[in-house]
Amino acid sequence: MSPWLIGSCGWPSVLSNHDLVSSICNALTYMGLNEIERWLNILMLQELSTDKPEELIKISIIRSRFAQTLAKRALMIYTAQHSAGMMGLFSVLDGVLEKSMAAALSGIALPPSILEVLIDGSGSLYPIYELMAAYEKGDWGTTLRRSQELSIEVYLVSR
After folding, report:
1. What's the pLDDT tens digit per position in 83-130?
2. DSSP string, 124-151
3. CA distances to 89, 93, 110, 123, 138 from 44, in Å
4. Domain-wise residue ranges, the chain
5. Contact 31/39 with Cβ under 8 angstroms?
6. CB 93 within 8 A of CB 137
7. What whole-number distance in Å separates Cα of residue 96 and Cα of residue 128?
8. Contact 142, 150 (CB under 8 A)
9. How far apart are CA 104 and CA 38, in angstroms?
């Protein structure tokens, strides 16, 4: 976040669950940095895909939430859950830009754990990616195997 934005919002402002979000500054404070980052990335993807099918953005958002939820169910630490969500969000960038994933991600500052998954098909988040992709394709054998490896009960994946 820029210092201007932080200063202009009177950072920090604590809101309870019962307070109304009545300004952009309050909304940014209430959301937190990770959610703001996610929101800005969604806006960026939307801007990049103006001439692409709307479904690409829908898939990106669904994958983001699904991957984050899977990481949470696998009891990964919070930063890994956030990274899993970002990995899901950027997983369609190659299709949006009509480039290889490596070319599409060049110049974007992402954590190495996300780059490993999306470019190399490896890393600590790869089991989440593989489970997400298997579920999406209806590959129930891989879905079951990866769910068990991640200690996620299969009935939770189908919810």
Report:
1. 999 899 889 888 888 889 999 888 778 889 999 999 999 999 999 999
2. TTHHHHHHHHHHHHT-HHHHHHHHHHTT
3. 11, 11, 14, 26, 30
4. 52-157
5. yes
6. no
7. 22
8. no
9. 18
